[in-house]
């Protein structure tokens, strides 16, 4: 959200980022593109800015479009972005669906662009605020998108773990081991929800939350409140790590074998996640 744009700027500066090579916007809601001017103002955009195309009638969208300017490109379901091209094992970002994946919907959340990031055998999915249930307001986009995504290791849980995200067909197809839940402690929507967490747990997904949220209480050890920052890194073809605020590191194997914690390094103590 625009009230907290100092957070991504400070984080990126803290890890030594000086520029943005590629920008991808899932959809045009404030909590997904609201900080674009601040981020790209601090870290100039070098390459393309991909989004779902079209337009949206908000000041936030207008500011976003003006900021990315001539860098803007409309993604397609066959767009592939290759980073570190020429390296033996480059990172690829594949846009696999957008604009409802052919399903009629006027809901901005369900128009979200879906991207799969791959490095070696490691795969992560980012699908914005997609829904998995027909409710009248939302459409089931997840079920049709799931085969296009395929198996992933890390899933950025759609729509902040709302009640309409992460249906059983989606989870059975993409079979993630780790779910990252981006959620604010001051949200007005009751995220993350008990129903979404129940589905994630039933499918064996361990979740990491950026904050405590304003919904269900985390179930330890299935859920972990990170305290603002969750970073997943594919170290090589054999393993990937999930690092959270305070220094805890979980290491998972790639490709997957029966779920087990390989090792963990915890600090002596970690304070409770602060509200923004």
Tell me about this structure:
The structure is a single chain. With 276 residues, this protein is of the alpha/beta class. The protein has 2 domains: 1-74; 76-276, no CATH class. The chain has 7 helices and 15 strands. The protein has helices spanning 6-14, 30-33, 36-42, 59-68, 142-149, 168-174, 194-202, and strands at 23-24, 49-51, 72-74, 80-83, 91-97, 114-119, 122-126, 154-156, 178-181, 206-209, 223-225, 230-234, 239-244, 249-253, 263-265. An 8-stranded mixed sheet has the order 4-5-6-7-8-9-10-11. Helix 3 packs parallel to helix 4 and helix 5 runs parallel beside helix 6 (168-174). It is globular.
Salient structural properties:
2 domains; 8-stranded mixed beta sheet; 276 residues; alpha/beta; 7 helices; 15 strands; disordered C terminus; 4-stranded antiparallel beta sheet; single chain; 23% strand
How would you sum up the global shape? globular
Largest sheet: 8 strands, mixed
Please give the number of β-strands.
15
User: For the largest beta sheet, what order do the strands appear in spatially?
Assistant: 4-5-6-7-8-9-10-11
Using only CA atoms, what is the Rg? 18 Å
Strand content: 15-25%
Low-pLDDT sequence parts: 257-276
Q: Order of SSEs, N→C?
A: HEHHEHEEEEEHEHEHEEEEEE
Give the total of domains.
2
Average pLDDT over all residues: 88
């Amino acid at each position: 959200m625009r009230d907290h744009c100092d957070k991504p700027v400070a984080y990126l500066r803290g890890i030594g980022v000086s520029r943005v090579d590629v920008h991808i916007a899932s959809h045009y809601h404030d909590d997904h593109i609201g900080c674009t001017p601040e981020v790209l103002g601090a870290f100039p955009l070098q390459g393309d800015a991909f989004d779902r195309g079209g337009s949206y009638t908000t000041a936030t969208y207008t500011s976003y479009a003006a900021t990315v300017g001539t860098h803007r490109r409309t993604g397609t379901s066959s767009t592939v972005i290759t980073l570190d091209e020429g390296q033996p094992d480059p990172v690829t970002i594949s846009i696999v669906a957008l604009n409802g994946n052919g399903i009629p919907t006027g809901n901005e959340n369900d128009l979200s662009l879906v991207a799969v990031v791959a490095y070696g055998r490691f795969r992560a999915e980012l699908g914005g605020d997609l829904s998995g249930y027909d409710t009248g307001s939302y459409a089931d986009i997840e079920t049709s998108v799931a085969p296009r995504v395929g198996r992933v290791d890390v899933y950025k849980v759609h729509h902040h773990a709302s009640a309409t995200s992460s249906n059983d067909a989606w989870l059975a197809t993409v079979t993630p081991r780790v779910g990252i839940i981006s959620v604010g402690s001051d949200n007005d929507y009751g995220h993350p929800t008990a129903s979404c967490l129940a589905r994630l747990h039933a499918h064996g997904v361990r979740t990491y939350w950026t904050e405590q949220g304003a919904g269900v209480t985390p179930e330890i050890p299935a859920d972990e409140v990170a305290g603002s920052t969750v970073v997943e890194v594919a170290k090589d073809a054999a393993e990937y790590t999930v690092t959270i605020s305070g220094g805890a590191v979980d290491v998972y194997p790639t490709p997957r074998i029966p779920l087990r914690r390989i090792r963990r390094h915890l600090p002596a103590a970690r304070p409770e996640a602060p509200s923004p």
